[in-house]
Specification:
This protein is mainly β and 285 residues long. Helix content is 12%, strand content 34%. The chain folds into two domains: 123 residues, Thrombin, subunit H (Beta Barrel); 105 residues, Thrombin, subunit H (Beta Barrel), CATH 2.40.10.10. The radius of gyration is 17 Å and the shape is globular. This is Serine proteases 1/2.
C-alpha cells in the first residue's frame, strides 16, 4: 500500500507543473451556468475507486425543489446533524423544505431512509459565487436507524499539497441516468484558498486540481474531503462547486479545479446552530 501511495504522489507531483500552465477561463460551473443547465446533470464522482472502508457517516441526499430533483451527499457529524452544501436546497429562488429531503444510507448493515426534521442554510450563502456554501440537516429523533459512527471536523491549519480522500455516491461514467449505490472515493492533493486558481475564491474555501481524470462532479456536492490525523479520519471540507478550463458538459478533465467549503471556518456557526459543544463535532487542538 505504501508503494502505491508513493507512486501516486510522485505521478501527481510530476504532472503538477504541466497542468498548472492551464489557467481556467470564465467557466465556473454553478456561477456562470444557469441553474437549469447545472441541475440537469446528475452528480457523480468521475473515475473513482470503490472505498475499502465502510464510511457510515457518508449519506445520500435526494432533494425535490419545485419540479427539480437534485442529488447530493451529506456527512454525519453528530447523532442528529448532517453537514452538506447549501446549494443542494435552492433552485430558481425556491428553497427545499424538510419534507422535500430524503436521506439514505447504503452502508452494509444500516441500509434505510432517515426522516428529516429541519434544514439550516447559512444566512449569508451566495448562490452566485458559492460563498458560505454550507447547510445543516437535522434528523428527527423518531428515526429507527441510528448511526453512532459519525466523524469530527478537522480544526487545524491546512498545509499546501495536503493529501485528502474525497468520497461520494455519484455515477462513475458519462451515463448520468444510471444510479450508483456504492460509496466511492478518490485521492487528491488539496490547497488552501490562496493557492487556488480562481478570482472568486475566498478564505472559507479549499481546492484541488484534477489529476489522472479523477474528480467530483454535479450531484456529489456536499460530499466530504477526508483527512487522517494521527490515523483517525476527520472531515476538512465539503464539496461546493468546480471550475473548468474547457467548454464541455463533462466533468473532471485534466487541469480542472474542484472547490470545498473549509469546515474549520464554520465551527462557531455550527455550534450556534446546533447547540452542540465544540468537542462533540470537531477535533480540538
Amino acid at each position: 500500500m505504501k508503494q502505491f501511495y508513493s507512486l501516486l504522489v510522485f505521478t501527481l507531483l510530476v504532472s503538477c507543473q504541466e497542468i498548472s500552465k492551464h489557467r481556467p477561463s470564465e467557466n465556473n460551473f454553478g456561477a456562470k451556468k444557469s441553474p437549469k443547465e447545472l441541475n440537469n446533470l446528475k452528480v457523480r464522482i468521475s473515475n473513482p475507486e470503490k472505498t475499502e472502508i465502510n464510511y457510515e457517516f457518508v449519506l445520500k441526499l435526494g432533494v425535490q425543489v419545485g419540479s427539480q430533483e437534485l442529488e447530493c451527499v451529506g456527512t454525519l457529524i453528530s447523532k442528529e446533524y448532517i453537514v452538506t452544501s447549501a446549494s443542494c436546497f435552492k433552485y430558481h429562488g425556491i428553497d427545499a423544505s424538510p419534507n422535500d429531503v430524503k436521506v439514505y444510507t447504503e452502508n452494509k448493515g444500516t441500509r434505510g431512509e432517515f426522516i428529516v426534521e429541519n434544514i439550516i442554510i447559512h444566512s449569508k450563502f451566495n448562490i452566485t459565487n458559492f460563498r458560505n456554501n454550507i447547510a445543516l440537516v437535522k434528523l428527527a429523533e423518531t428515526n429507527v436507524i441510528i448511526i453512532d459512527n459519525y466523524i469530527k471536523i478537522y480544526n487545524k491549519p491546512l498545509r499546501d499539497m495536503e493529501f485528502f480522500e474525497i468520497a461520494g455516491y455519484g455515477v462513475d461514467s458519462n451515463n448520468y441516468n444510471r444510479p450508483n449505490y456504492e460509496l466511492k472515493s478518490f485521492y487528491a492533493l488539496v490547497h488552501p484558498y490562496k493557492n487556488c486558481s480562481d478570482k472568486n475564491v475566498y478564505k472559507n474555501m479549499i481546492c484541488y486540481t484534477v489529476y489522472l481524470g479523477k474528480g467530483a462532479c454535479y450531484g456529489d456536492m456536499g460530499g466530504p474531503a477526508i483527512i487522517e490525523d494521527e490515523g483517525i479520519p476527520s472531515v476538512a471540507g465539503i464539496s461546493s462547486h468546480f471550475f473548468t478550463h474547457g467548454e464541455r458538459k463533462a466533468c473532471s478533465a485534466e487541469g480542472d479545479f474542484g472547490y470545498f467549503t473549509n469546515l474549520a471556518k464554520y465551527i462557531k456557526w455550527i455550534k450556534r446552530m446546533t447547540g452542540l459543544d465544540q468537542n462533540e463535532f470537531a477535533i480540538i487542538d
